[in-house]
């Protein structure tokens, strides 16, 4: 047998799995991440976790380990430029240091790119030559596969799909700019729009649901499912913004399929009619038949994709 | 010697060259294109032109011929889906038909993609692994090279860089949508903005330059060079829109360099301060040092790039 190890390095949790080349999971561990303790301790923690999911598998059956990192990474050198969720992570040669410790081949990738690889190999993008994965939660990230290869660009920084200006005078974005797609269509923006609307609409279920006057994205989804008028309007607006961004991605990367993951994608069926409406109305005809689908691997996309960096 | 033939199939002219693998031009022909006569006659015309630039070169020294087509093309099958500038061009198997006629290996590509290949191999993108070419004239087109390969996507339709929505409520675009980058930043938009501004600004050189009350892009450039206030404002606005679109391309493709060609790029030095300002202010820090440069091959980018489709 040949096994592949994947690690998802997060600010809260550290997860690792061991899979075979079909994506079948043989081991899965999750611990709290020593995110505040600096790179030395966190790298030691990763190495320990890798050994745990190896179990008593013979060394020669382990092809290697891939690590998904929350920040920009050079996939060629394996250097992590920066990871704001992890204290002290600037220019850390993660690949070299983990190779030293584990004696395994190590690959490193940006977490959203790595999740795209996971969905492409074993999830919603399986069988595609050209594939776009978008994750919509606090922010918007993603990854692009073209001709069966991850689109990396200089310093591995291609496919920052959330940071496309879709209105130069739009809201402030997490990147410091204004009017990125993320600033209109992320889960954060959806919740912000809902709370702003509460002040102006007096007759909505959302008022009853609010805790200390504040509603969550989940509240809006629940209210929309109960046909609340305000919640339905918020869902429509969110869906339309998602559609505008995806219509752009169609023209930029020409994928065979777009898969949507992240927290907000749990309610994708609610948003889908509006996404499809925008694509059908605004994309050039030749792109309109490209399906937008839900991602298939859920929270496992990242950790499976990290392992998949070593596959094939 | 090994030679490569390139053909640029345009609505007005048909051009062909023969180059070596360094891009040196050995023959160059240009004729009026039989654009209205249907595919049969035009394909015969292309074959004749290919034979003309072959001259008496021994057949075994010709590697093949590449054709740049003004419309969407499947580069794998060599089928031209559509070319609106050419009468009757729908689903034409151009590669197969030219191979039959010329007995040469034939490659087919979209004209903007092909020009990107030309600039990448022999022009402003030489030496880059990741490169974006943008052409700004009537519309905005372009091509992307990533890891030394042309980014094609499904049906070869990736990199429609002009058709990114940068304001969903913006002006009508040539593609039928509203608010694409092209609708704000093409040469057509620049001229439209100038003529609209004429009506509201009474003290501009442009009034004297207008022919029948209408100014051209060239007039605005000339007036800006003479420090005309209105023309300078129009140049600044155009430069800022160019900057917004290029800032987006940096985040989407992470090139090492962006080269700008097309009619408007003749005045690139005038626009450059504003392009650079926008990139410096709006791009994430890690992208800000990517140079934006003028394309190097001028009108030859397309025909040289077509030949370069055959270069290993």
What does this structure look like?
2 copies of one chain form a homodimer. With about 300 residues, chain A is an alpha/beta fold. The first copy, chain A, folds into 2 domains: about 130 residues, Nucleotidyltransferase, domain 5; about 170 residues, ATPase, nucleotide binding domain (Nucleotidyltransferase, domain 5). Helices cover about 35% and strands about 20% of the residues of chain A. A 5-stranded mixed sheet of chain A has the order 3-2-1-4-8. In chain A, strands 11-10-9-12-13 form a 5-stranded mixed sheet, with helices on both faces. In chain A, a hairpin with a 7-residue loop joins β6 and β7. In chain A, α3 crosses α10. The longest helix of chain A has 25 residues. The two termini of chain A are about 15 Å apart. In chain A, about 55% of the residues are buried. The model of chain A has no long low-confidence stretch (mean pLDDT about 95). Chains A and B meet through α8 of A and α8 of B.
Mean pLDDT of chain A: 96
Major sheet: arrangement of strands of chain A = 3-2-1-4-8
What is the tally of helical segments of chain A? Answer: 10
Multimeric status of the protein: homodimer
Sheet/helix structural class of chain A: alpha/beta
Low-pLDDT stretches of chain A are none
CATH architecture title of the largest domain in chain A: 2-Layer Sandwich
Fraction of residues in β-strands of chain A? 15-25%
Specify the biggest β-sheet of chain A: 5 strands, mixed
In the CATH scheme, the class of the largest domain in chain A would be Alpha Beta
The helix-strand sequence of chain A is: EEEHEEEEHEHEEEHHHHHEHEH
CATH superfamily of the largest domain in chain A: ATPase, nucleotide binding domain
> Could you give the count of β-strands of chain A?
13
CATH topology of the largest domain in chain A: Nucleotidyltransferase, domain 5
Distance between the termini of chain A: 15 Å
Radius of gyration of chain A using CA atoms only:
20 Å
The count of domains of chain A is: 2
- Describe the global form of chain A: globular
């Amino acid at each position: 047998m040949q096994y592949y190890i994947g690690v998802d390095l997060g600010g809260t949790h550290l997860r690792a799995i061991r899979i075979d080349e079909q994506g079948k999971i043989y081991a899965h561990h999750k611990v709290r991440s020593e995110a505040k303790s600096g790179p030395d301790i966190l790298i030691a923690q990763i190495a320990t976790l890798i050994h745990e999911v190896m179990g008593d598998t013979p060394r020669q059956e382990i092809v290697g380990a891939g690590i998904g990192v929350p920040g920009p990474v050079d996939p060629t050198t394996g250097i992590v430029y920066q990871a704001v969720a992890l204290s002290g992570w600037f220019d850390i040669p993660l690949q070299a240091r983990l190779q030293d410790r584990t004696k395994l081949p190590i690959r490193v990738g940006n977490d959203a790119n790595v999740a795209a690889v996971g969905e492409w190999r074993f999830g919603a993008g399986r069988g595609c030559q050209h594939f776009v994965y978008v994750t919509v939660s606090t922010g918007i990230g993603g990854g692009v596969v073209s001709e069966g290869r991850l689109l990396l660009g200089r310093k591995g920084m291609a496919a920052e799909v959330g940071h496309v200006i879709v209105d130069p005078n739009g809201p402030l974005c997490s990147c410091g700019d204004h009017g990125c797609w993320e600033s209109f269509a992320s889960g954060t923006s959806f919740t912000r729009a809902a709370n702003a609307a509460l002040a102006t609409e007096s007759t909505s279920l959302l008022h009853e649901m609010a805790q200390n006057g504040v509603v969550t994205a989940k509240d809006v989804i629940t209210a929309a499912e109960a046909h609340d008028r305000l919640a339905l309007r918020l869902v429509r607006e969110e869906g339309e913004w998602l559609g505008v961004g995806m219509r752009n991605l169609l023209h930029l990367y020409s994928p065979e399929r777009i898969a949507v993951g992240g927290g907000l994608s749990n309610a994708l069926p609610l948003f889908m009619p509006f996404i499809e409406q925008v694509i059908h109305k605004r994309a050039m005809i030749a792109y309109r038949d490209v399906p937008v689908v839900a991602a298939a691997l859920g929270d496992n996309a990242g950790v499976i994709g990290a392992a998949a960096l070593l596959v094939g």
